[in-house]
Amino acid sequence: MTKNLKNLPSGTMNGGRALAEMLSLAGAGPMFGMGGFQLLPFYDAVGLVGLNHHLINDERCGAFAADAYARITNRPGICDGTLGPGATNLVTGLIESLNGGIPIVAITGDTNRSHSWKNMTQECRQVEILRPAVKELIRVEMTSRIPELVRRAFAVATSGRPGPVLLDVPEDVCHGTHDFTVEDFVIDEATLKAPARRIRPDRAEVERAAKLIAKAKRPLLLVGGGIHLSEGWDALAKFAEAQSIPVAHTMSGKGGIACASPLNVGLFGRYSRIANDLIEASDCLIVVGCKLGEIATKRFALPPAHIPVIHLDIVAEEIGRCRSAEIALWGDARAGLEDLAEALLDSVKVAGGGRTDYLAEIAPRMKKWEDEAAPRLDSRDRPVHMARLCRELNKTLPADAILVADGGFAGHWTGLLYDTKKAGRHYVPDRGFASIGYGLPGGMGACLAAPDRAVVAISGDGGFNMTLGELETARRAGCGLTVIVVNNAASGYVKALQHAMMGGRYQSADLNEMDYAAIARTMGCGGIRVEDPEALSSALRQGMEERDRPTVVDVVVTRDPAQMLPAVDNRTVQIKQGDRVA
Ligand SMILES: Cc1ncc(C[n+]2csc(CCOP(=O)(O)OP(=O)(O)O)c2C)c(N)n1
Ligand SMILES: [Mg+2]
Q: Which of 116, 412, 449, 496 is the most exposed place for a label (fewest CB within 10 A)?
């Protein structure tokens, strides 16, 4: 349906105003960027039309914040940068969204075309640099076409596999004027949120898949981030329950089904509780909204070649890319699961009944894993054990909380050990590109997307250092965000790998001992330093109680590189040439 609001603008206006009017019509949420001359008319119009724009301190962080906002809402996150360095700073953040399939509308200013390529200040080949970082790059060549091209940007961002779209706006287009009519300002409401449209897999393939599943004794669902993009949580739970099929997930797929569900068998791939073992023993894998990339497959060692795979994905060419699929279900995850459930209606009784023993294995196996992990989960070690930190997060965070996890150990450990209590995207790791530095700005984006919920970001000290300036932004934006700094005074992942693989020769892996809580306090934020694991819970609670400024909880964790990697015993690990231990 086409959205066309009352009191629509019309008449002569500049390109920046037209851009802002269109974003307003699109119901744009918080936007993140840093201005420059080229986009000045747009910035001017932002206030006039009542949009909510936040000055960030690094455009990459604006893109990260927009990405996290989009993950929470499934509505396009919006960020902008001025020409040249502003535009190039967006690259890392946009690739996170591209690889993660996250809807984004990004805007860059560009040179005035009357003078392009005459050594204009800050000029570079930004269109060429940014094109591979986005799903589509739209160069806006006429002021009059701004409404049409903003419509296109939203349509591309939210359709099929969502992704970032860049509107590159030359200065003269932004500053130039056009006489717009009321009819110019329309937008298709379906394109304002992913998934804009749903496509169902081929009926015949669904039937074939249903037959394979019906006769399987040990089927297993492997779920990726696509489940959140398609909002397929209920469909997944219904299907898994009706068919008695356990669910394993990637880091991005966590929360496809609540971690607390008895059908949830946790993370699979590089780190796993019991899921990898279940994969090995499975006779039918149902992969949903998951690319089966390096981390999910332990560098393509999983799943074993003899196990048939049913692969449901919105991108046809992802099916069979890393692992051949017995049955290809090209379509939306929710729609595909609903269709599978329907096709299996007749076999519900038989299948469910036939899998009682299989399902009965899950709880004791999980319990066994937990008993083995208990010494780490309950550790009273000082410095704090990462597993203990994860357990405190599990105990302390409310059911609707959002945990945003940075690259580095913050993501590795919480990916394995953090449990969501409800289905939904309550865990937001930046696994598209796995850059460090996502935690703080991502936390800010999540906070602005869900101001009434507790938002906790967890970041390494290296990642935090990279984007520390955004604490100023988060404070200015009034975000009641809690940022946990995993303080190991190291580029820890690198140091742990050097320990395991380079005979303990450490190179460029140490950071200074710092007190990030004290830094936060001098920046006008809350700051709590935690050295005793018993103090974790109250520090987290105190952080979550702050509703309008960020709190940094600086947690001193192990400095021993032999203890840093989750699930890898450095004394016994086998290192193969060209492989990675974790
Ligand atoms: C932008 C970027 N540079 C380098 C890396 C490679 N890398 C992965 S984890 C890691 C260590 C980061 O240190 P820190 O943020 O303190 O996390 P820790 O591993 O110590 O928990 C690095 C350098 C990366 N992921 N992203
Ligand atoms: Mg570190």
A: 116
What's the CA-to-centroid distance between 493 and ligand 2, angstroms? 7
| Buried residues in 287-319 as b, exposed as e (16+ CB within 10 A) | bbbbbbbebbbbeeebbeeebbbbbbbbeeebb
Q: Are 498 and 509 in contact (CB under 8 A)?
A: yes
How does DSSP classify residue 141? -
Q: Tell me the CA–centroid distance for residue 413 and ligand 2, in Å.
A: 13
Helix pair 233-243, 333-343: axis angle to 10 deg = 30
pLDDT tens-digit profile of 480-503? Answer: 999 999 999 999 999 999 999 999
Answer yes or no: is the C-beta of 460 below 6 A from any ligand 1 atom.
yes
Which pLDDT score, from 0 to 100, does residue 10 have?
Answer: 83
| Mutational pocket test of ligand 1: of 491, 556, 580, the residue with most ligand atoms within 8 Å of the beta carbon | 491
Residue 85, preceding peptide bond in cis (omega within 30° of 0): no
- What's the rounded Cα separation, in Å, for the pair 154 and 173? 20
Dihedral pair phi/psi, residue 384, rounded to 5°? -65, 140
Closest CA to 400 of 379, 384, 378, 424: 424
**Residues contacting residue 566 through CB under 8 Å, at least 6 positions apart:** 271, 386, 387, 409, 412, 413, 416, 417, 582
C-alpha pair distances (Å), 328 with each of 2, 309, 323, 391, 548: 34, 9, 11, 39, 48
**Burial (CB count within 10 angstroms: exposed 0-12, middle 13-18, buried 19+), residue 71:** buried
According to the model, what pLDDT value does residue 571 have? 40
Q: Is 296 within 8 Å of 250 (Cβ atoms)?
A: yes
Residue 491 Cβ < 6 Å to ligand 1: yes
Is 0.90 topped by the overall pTM? yes
pLDDT in tens, 303-340: 999 999 999 999 999 999 999 999 999 999 999 999 99
- Residue 30 pLDDT greater than 90, yes or no: yes
> Which atom belonging to ligand 1 lies closest to the Cα atom of 412?
21
Q: What are 552-580's pLDDT values in tens digits?
A: 999 999 999 999 998 654 444 555 655 66
Ligand sitting nearest the alpha carbon of 410: 1
Summarised one tens digit per residue, pLDDT across range 69-98 is 999 999 999 999 999 999 999 999 999 999
List 266's β-bridge partners, or say none.
248
* Ligand 1 lined by 409 (C-beta under 6 Å): yes
The mean of the pLDDT values for the chain is 95
CA distance 327 to 209: 6
- CA atoms of 308 and 327, how far apart (whole Å): 8
Judge whether residue 397 has pLDDT over 60: yes
State whether the beta carbon of 488 lies less than 6 angstroms from ligand 1.
Answer: yes
- Of ligand 1's listed atoms, the one at least distance from the Cα of 463 is 15
**Using CA atoms, how far apart are residues 365 and 381, in angstroms rounded to an integer?**
27
